[in-house]
């Protein structure tokens, strides 16, 4: 089974929390509500704000609020944004220690391509609303 990175998990949890609220929420509120580390919530929300997917509001009633565009974002793009790297690596890169002897490069590339396409076709909206993806 595929395992989501912890940072991406925190981002999804924060997005879901903001999705359920009409008002801006502070990092502390989200952190306490979800029982996840304050610094981790702050970090993922800063990345989302930098990409203009959430809006940071200042002041007493300040905090973060979702921008509508985030719902159209794919899970793949969210993961790449949060992790700061490509979600999948190409099997034929020189990063692999077994590149010269590997006998499954084509199979791994096929798996990567299909999985990448699948994750690119799942929107955050589908995740938030629990829409079944076929």
Helix/strand-derived class? mainly alpha
Mean pLDDT: 86
Work out the helicity level.
40-55%
CATH fold descriptor of the domain at 6-87 and 123-129: Arc Repressor Mutant, subunit A
- By CATH reckoning, the class of the domain at 6-87 and 123-129 would read Mainly Alpha
Task: Write the SSE topology.
Layout: H1 6-19, H2 27-34, H3 38-50, E1 54-57, E2 63-66, H4 75-83, H5 105-120, H6 124-129
Antiparallel strand pairs: 1-2
Helix pairs in contact: 1-3, 2-3
What does this structure look like?
The chain is mainly alpha-helical and 134 residues long. Helices cover 49% and strands 6% of the residues. It is built from 6 helices and 2 strands, in the order αααββααα. The protein has a two-stranded antiparallel sheet. α1 crosses α3 and α2 (27-34) crosses α3. The mean pLDDT is 86.
């Amino acid at each position: 089974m595929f395992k989501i990175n912890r940072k991406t998990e925190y981002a999804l949890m924060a997005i879901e929390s903001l999705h359920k609220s009409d008002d801006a929420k502070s990092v502390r509120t989200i952190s306490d509500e979800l029982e996840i580390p304050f610094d981790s919530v702050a970090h993922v929300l800063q990345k989302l704000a930098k990409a203009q997917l959430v809006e940071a509001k200042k002041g007493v009633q300040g905090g973060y609020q979702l921008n509508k565009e985030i719902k159209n974002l794919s899970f793949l793009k969210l993961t790449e944004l949060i992790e700061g790297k490509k979600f999948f690596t190409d099997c034929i890169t020189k990063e692999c220690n077994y590149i010269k002897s590997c006998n499954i490069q084509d199979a791994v590339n096929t798996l990567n391509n299909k999985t990448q396409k699948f994750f690119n076709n799942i929107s955050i909206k589908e995740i938030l609303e629990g829409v079944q993806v076929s």
